[in-house]
Automatic annotation (TrEMBL):
CDD domains: ATP-synt_Fo_a_6 (cd00310). It is found in: Cell membrane; Membrane. PROSITE patterns: ATPASE_A. This is ATP synthase subunit a.
């Protein structure tokens, strides 16, 4: 059974597997963005066109789901970085997995619910922050009693369910993809000698391609839902 490498420091548990994967992907996103935008010109080159297309794509997600113009300006960079970071994290385990015996040192960080819950918590905290800035503390809390007072418990439960659905949807899809790829590469490939080994190779390639598509969709869905949740906090019903 695969296990993440966890170590203790000052009484706290640290998941080295998640730390390594997240750090690798953070550096990857940074250097790719730096390379694409290194020479900005009035007449864009191919690298600059790619960078601007990605930025316009995420800006479109923000504008479609957040009506407040001031909030759009603050969320533009967040949506851009969040999309790229999650996209690369989703793909990591499909092409690179480092194992020593049963210990896994590198895999997709988003195949761990702690990572996806951290992203979801960041989104919810941002939504609370923008809501308080827009309406004030009293006005923001009053929104939980809209449209009628007895909706308060339901609206509070909705906050918790938003957190769970946002995080577990991403985790479930990426984790399931890695599990199936492991089954194809390990169990099926070694089940019946050369025949199953030959059969497993194209299946693994097909599944990797499909997983890239799923990982891209899940990154898009996560960012879109994040903007929807934040957009609801800065608008009145």
């Amino acid at each position: 059974m695969e296990k993440s490498f966890v170590f203790k420091f000052m009484g706290l548990n640290f998941d080295l597997t998640g730390i390594i994967g997240s750090t690798l992907m953070a550096l990857t996103v940074f250097f790719i963005c730096f390379w694409l935008a290194r020479k900005v010109e009035m007449k864009p080159n191919k690298r600059q066109n790619v960078f601007e297309y990605l930025l316009e794509f995420t800006n479109g997600i923000v504008k479609d789901n957040v009506s407040d113009v001031d909030a759009q300006k603050h969320l533009s960079l967040y949506a851009f970085v969040l999309f790229l970071f999650i996209w690369f994290m989703n793909q990591l385990g499909m092409f690179l997995e480092v194992k020593v015996d049963d210990w896994v040192f590198v895999k997709s960080p988003t195949a761990d619910p702690v990572a996806t819950m951290s992203f979801a918590m960041m989104t919810l905290l941002l939504s609370f922050t923008f809501g308080v800035q827009r309406f004030g503390v009293g006005g923001y809390l009053k929104n939980y009693t809209q449209p009628v007072g007895f909706m308060l418990p339901i609206n509070l439960i909705e906050e918790f369910t938003n957190f769970l659905t946002l995080s577990l949807r991403l985790y479930g899809n990426i984790y399931a993809g890695e599990v199936l790829l492991t089954l194809i590469g390990n169990d099926l490939a070694h089940a019946g000698g050369p025949f199953t080994l030959i059969l497993a190779a194209p299946l693994a390639m097909i599944w990797q391609g499909f997983s890239v598509f799923i990982g891209s969709i899940q990154a898009y869905v996560f960012v879109t839902l994040s903007m929807v949740y934040i957009g609801k906090k800065v608008t009145t019903e």
